[in-house]
Amino acid sequence: MTKTIVDQEVAIVTGAGQGLGLAITEKFLLEGKRVVFIDVNERLLNEVKASDQLRKYDSSKAMFLTVDVSDVYSIKQSVGVIHENWGRIDILVNNAGVRKETVIEEVTEDEWNHVLSVNLGGTFFYSQAVLKIMKQQKKGRIINVSSFGGQAGPLTSGAHYCASKAGQLVLTKVFARSLAAQGITVNAVAPAAIETPEMEKMDQVVLDKMKMNIPVNRFGKAEEVANMVSYLASDAAGYITGSTFDINGGLLMR
Ligand SMILES: NC(=O)c1ccc[n+]([C@@H]2O[C@H](COP(=O)([O-])OP(=O)(O)OC[C@H]3O[C@@H](n4cnc5c(N)ncnc54)[C@H](O)[C@@H]3O)[C@@H](O)[C@H]2O)c1
Fold first, then answer.
1. Full domain range(s) for residue 159
2. How many domains does the chain have?
3. Does 248 sit in the ligand 1 pocket, CB within 6 Å?
4. CA distance 44 to 66
5. What are the start-end ranges of the H helices in 61-158?
6. Ligand 1 centroid to 5 CA: how many Å?
7. Residue 199 Cα to ligand 1 middle (Å)
8. For the chain, what percent of residues have pLDDT higher than 90?
9. What is the pLDDT of residue 1?
């Protein structure tokens, strides 16, 4: 039996249940892409599936898979399911992340391993898992959602979070260099202080102080990150690889 290969580009977005990941999926759906929503939180995925927002789009273009990105076996299984059903994988956005504010003295080995295996391990193993397919296609786009914390150290986040986000930035370069000749580009975005459910958990005094230090004098919007990811995923960005794009209202200028 010949395998079905869908006409539209297929984009995988991890951590798609809320926040930046969800905004990126919406942008891709709006562009007519097929989108795979990956999240460890099945409840969030079910809420997205049932939302009015999603009903605006053709439901056959959205696939929902509950995957823990720190579980390499589940990652490989999900890539198999996507390829089996849609026959192609054009874009991978490694966005799933956990952020902790634990002070250095109190980070346990378990918490360290968890943060590193989700944020950094998830990025490495999802990218590894889609490589064979992207190489066969001679085309692919990988976008890693890192952070200001991985560039400049913490605003409020812990050492383990910052180390994982810095790790994503060097992985971006390693993968970019290794894949550049095969039509696959790999880039990162480094947001800071974007309004998402994660920010709602933060102390108002800390948030007010943070805002005062942002040159544009406001927090960022998830759509602003989604717009940059969409550009990096497009054909127009074919000459850009191994780069990191700051989305931080001028907080870090380099
Ligand atoms: N919001 C910001 O200001 C900001 C700033 C810098 C970087 N970032 C990065 O952007 C990404 C998204 O951030 P956000 O603010 O939308 O966070 P969020 O917490 O709102 O969303 C993260 C999503 O990832 C999912 N997730 C967590 N662990 C997972 C796992 N093991 N497997 C699969 N999915 C998992 C969560 O269920 C959630 O849906 C993260 O990588 C974060 O580090 C965000």
1. 10-246
2. 1
3. no
4. 10
5. 72-86, 109-115, 122-137, 149-152
6. 30
7. 11
8. 94
9. 60
The pLDDT tens digits for 225-237 are 999 999 999 999 9
Sign of the alpha-carbon dihedral angle for 46, 50, 52, 58: positive
Alpha-carbon span 221 to 229, nearest angstrom: 13
Both tokens of 236, joined, read 């127009």
CA of 157 to the centre of ligand 1 (A): 13
126 flagged as catalytic: no
Residue pointed to by tokens 């079905």: 4
* pLDDT score of 200: 86
- The answer to whether residue 207 scores a pLDDT higher than 70 is yes
At 98, which CATH number? 3.40.50.720
- Helices 19-30 and 222-233: angle between axes, nearest 10 degrees: 50
Q: Hey, what amino acid is at 231?
A: Y
The conformation of residue 169, written as its DSSP 8-state character, comes to H
| Substitution site in 18, 67, 116 for ligand 1 pocket (most atoms within 8 Å of beta carbon) | 18
Contact 28, 55 (CB under 8 A): no
Asked whether residue 126 is assigned to any structural domain, the reply reads yes
CA 241 centroid distance within chain? 16
